[in-house]
Design brief:
With 349 residues, this protein is of the alpha+beta class. It is built from 13 helices and 12 strands. Helix content is 44%, strand content 13%. The strands form 4 sheets. Strands 1-5-6-4-3-2 form a 6-stranded mixed sheet, sandwiched between helices. A two-stranded antiparallel ribbon has the order 7-10. A hairpin with a 3-residue loop joins strand 3 and strand 4. Helix 12 runs antiparallel to helix 13. The chain starts with a helix and ends with a helix.
Length: 349
Amino acid sequence: MFLGKLMTSCLRGERTTSYKSSCSEISSLKNGGLLVEELIRISNGDYNPFCVFSEHELKQATKDYDQNLVLLLDDNYSLFQGVLENRGVVLIKKTNDHDELVEYCIREIAIAAYVSTNRNLVKLLGCCLESKVPIIVFEYVPNGNLSAYLQEEKLILPWRCKVRIAAQVAAAIDYLHVGKSRPLIHRHVKTGNILLDANLNAKLFDFGLSLEIPLGETYVQALVEGTIGFIAPESVDTGKFNEKTDVFAFGATLIEILTGLEPHDVFIQASSTDRFPSLTPAAESSLIPVPLPTRRDLLVFLKSNLINDAKQNALNATAELAARCVDVLPEKRPMIEQVAKELRQIQNM
């Protein structure tokens, strides 16, 4: 039945855009087929309904992708604010026009459709399959990303907002890990991928790197991708990703919340040795190795560089939690469920 839902949408889109070039028609059929396969593989048909928009609709919504409407700019995509008829303001994620990015977009649509009911994940509204690389439409989240608030002096978040945001992101990751039949690993948790709504509530964004752990396995093997400072050292070394990978990235995010400093800078400054993580040849070509401090060295650095905007016991407890999350040994990191629980307790300090 779910195949019919998507294919009906694709066909309806094709009829309304029959004037378009054969390239658009070919892309629509090709991308539609890939998306159906990915939806079957990831969700077995248990996904939340979404719309299929025409390329013309999205061009109108963004005034032909007016650069003045760009809210976020990434190496691989631009995130536009757009206005769709009968839907109001939306976010439109337009990925760069490269063939190798198609699979990332298809995966993001399928995973977002699978998990869209969680309030701390950005909700998928639909997509356009006519372009060579699919374009994705999300709910509008008006206050940008957390990174901007931490890195720009004019944007100040009070402590109660920071710790609430951290707890909400931890809850979102926990949902990905245990809320479905197979664990989903986000693989790109960072402050730049945490959007803030009108009330400064967190919504985790960007599922382009997300992967599910195969049934009966404890990890998923994949190309090492992501952002320096947020990738767990064992994943850089082996290309294996699991729940503790996301815990490390969350810990790095918590470090940035606590200090206002980017995690890789913290790791470098806190490290008392010249030891570097070992890298595979493939990883060396795309990643810069970051020195990894001991937990003790990291805690000393964190406690001397905290933004003092809360009670000292709350700050210290959060620093200690962050240090545990980025432990060099994954088995010493807490599960994200425990992290979320501790953050809720810290909120009451």
